[in-house]
TrEMBL record, chain A:
SUPFAM superfamilies for the chain: Glu-tRNAGln amidotransferase C subunit
Alphabetical list of InterPro entries matching this protein: Asp/Glu-ADT_sf_sub_c, GatC
Name of the featured protein: Aspartyl/glutamyl-tRNA(Asn/Gln) amidotransferase subunit C
Subunit structure: Heterotrimer of A, B and C subunits.
Family: Belongs to the GatC family.
Alphabetical list of Gene3D superfamilies matching this protein: Glu-tRNAGln amidotransferase C subunit, N-terminal domain
Automatic annotation (TrEMBL), chain B:
Protein name: Glutamyl-tRNA(Gln) amidotransferase subunit A
Catalytic activity: L-glutamyl-tRNA(Gln) + L-glutamine + ATP + H2O = L-glutaminyl-tRNA(Gln) + L-glutamate + ADP + phosphate + H(+)
PANTHER family: GLUTAMYL-TRNA(GLN) AMIDOTRANSFERASE SUBUNIT A, TRANSAMIDASE
Top EC group: ligase
Keywords: ATP-binding, Ligase, Nucleotide-binding, Protein biosynthesis
Gene name of the record: gatA
Amino acid sequence: MSIHVQDVEHVAKLARLNLSDEEKERYTEQLNAILKYAEKLNELNTDDVSPTTHVLPIRNVMREDEVRPSLPIEKVMANAPEEEDGQFKVPAVLE
Amino acid sequence: MTPLEMSISELKQALTDRKLSASELADASYRRIAETDERVQAFLTLNEEGAREQASLTDGRIAQGEAVDILAGVPAGIKDNIVTEGLRTTCASRFLDNYKPIYDGTVSRKLRDAQVVTIGKLNMDEFAMGGSNENSAFKSTRNPWDLERVPGGSSGGSAAAVAAGQVSFALGSDTGGSIRQPASYCGVVGLKPTYGLVSRFGLVAFASSLDQIGPLTRSVEDAAHVLQAIAGYDKMDSTSADVSIPDYAEALTGDVKGLRIGVPKEYIGQGVDPKVKEAVLAALNVFESLGATWEEVSMPHTDYAVATYYLLASSEASSNLARFDGVRYGVRADNPDNLLQLYHESRSQGFGPEVKRRIMLGTYALSSGYYDAYYLKAQKVRTLIKQDFDEAFNQYDILLGPTAPTTAFRLGEQIDDPLAMYLNDILTIPVSLAGVPAISIPCGLADGLPVGLQLIGKAFQETTVLRAAHAFEQHTEYHKLRPQL
């Protein structure tokens, strides 16, 4: 399986990244090298092996749905690049 | 002896006896930083005002005869991916250049409660992705043993600051070796606890199924004291383990009689520098002379660990780093036409090349049509790797090998070859995938550079790992070696 510049463009779009032509070329080359290396996993038969998502034997961790104090709005907004009236400001979503 | 050379228990004694004050200790730390950090480049942000305030508060309490924690007044550095309220936290990324957290991570709060004096925030590879600190957006930390060499990574600033005697201890984080490998390169002690032992709340997530916070120190005993302060269940981290926490310092008996050590033959095979191997085999003789036994064991899936790790860690990273969107904090691109462009531009400007590379790899591995072939396959191989450990631990109490295949490499030597860089972690990654605890301790020098010995234990058996490491330390002088700066 090898990937082409078009695949890199598609993945960049999914990852919400803009890449320059030079970056696209470099990542195509480097991702191919890394994925080629990763193909060694296919030497192992894993048909009857279950996946490990997590090493601890913890399942759903539940808690009571209790109301707790929220952070004050000034603190929440402290790092906002742009805010207005205690809300995060972004460009219009709907035209 | 300067106060920063003293162990944590010696500091506690000196502070209690009023031979030394926390304020003098903070002064000594900043003085040492002023003398050395232009060369070492370990710190990203200093916390002078906050540190002096904390120190004088602690001095006041001691003066009043109040009983304080063993870490009270001790100067420490914190890796810059652990959030500290009001203190700039960048993850060494342009994206978070101006980010001041509005809350403390659990470990930061625990250190604050123990009255630790936080000297500043330490450099790292951007978002903890890398093994040399060359991926920091701000600066490359240097190895105090040889300023032309890397300190390792990603907790390179943490390891270098401890090795340079700038702080008594530092916190780091380890996803695939990011505490142990820099500890090895810089000749200090680095402990990666069992996954889940230390809360990850307030650790900026890289790969959530692997990330774990731990101490970097100049002795095993110091590591035990710091672990005591930060370990424990936390309801703010649903993956934290609800286990009882033993007295770690009490476990340091010096007795390893009858300890069964397994040496994975894959860990001392091809690719391991002969001088590194020699130091590790010499360490086995020390253990043998203390009454431990050892034999070779096979961990047949070791060779698959790096590929497994890069697929899993990058996949998790691509998901975790989706939060950096330029809306709530961090970089925002100027004048985007629409929301989608705001995301694209902000992320492209904020992230460095290695972070983009891993986001790309992870996004690809998780994308439709490739999920089974890469992500699911890697999760299955992770099971096989974990089984290697389960089987070995049926026979042995400890597994032992080098921490890294080589000593510290030169700056720039591997930066253009991501795969070569990834292979430095070949001996630490399997441990991370299995989730078990491991420590790196100094076990000698090769051509003047420190060699790290890795001791790996069963899940939640930090006491066994610390006891074995401490016994070795008691009978060797390697941990007393210091770089000439």
